[in-house]
Amino acid sequence: MTFEITKDRELTRRGDCVIAVAATRGLLDLSSDFRRLCKDQRTRVAMEIETEGIRELIQGRGNPALTLNHPIEMVGRKSTYASGRTFMVRADKSASDISRDLLRELKSPGTIVRIRLIAELE
Fold this sequence. Notes:
Layout: E1 2-6, E2 18-20, H1 32-38, E3 43-51, E4 54-61, E5 73-77, E6 86-88, H2 100-107, E7 114-121
Parallel strand pairs: 1-2, 5-6
Antiparallel strand pairs: 1-5, 3-4, 3-7
């Protein structure tokens, strides 16, 4: 029901929703404008994730209950549950919904991953 991006460099077996490690930013590192928009339920929040030649878009919503205060992790959720790690609720995909080709690339050591976060007030 979730996907996660973390600044941690390694992953445990319990991290089955983690799609990217060694991120350069956590939620606390994001701009105040982005964080403000994520706290509005009228905001469409999107994440583009791309490796060499493969790109996928995940879309969800903002929510006033989001605190966006985790220094290491960013979590998108299909549900409306909000925690300090959550930046998107009602996502249209979880880690298990991401294309198998992209997941194969993400698991490959040394793969460069580019993530773009977008927040647009509707």
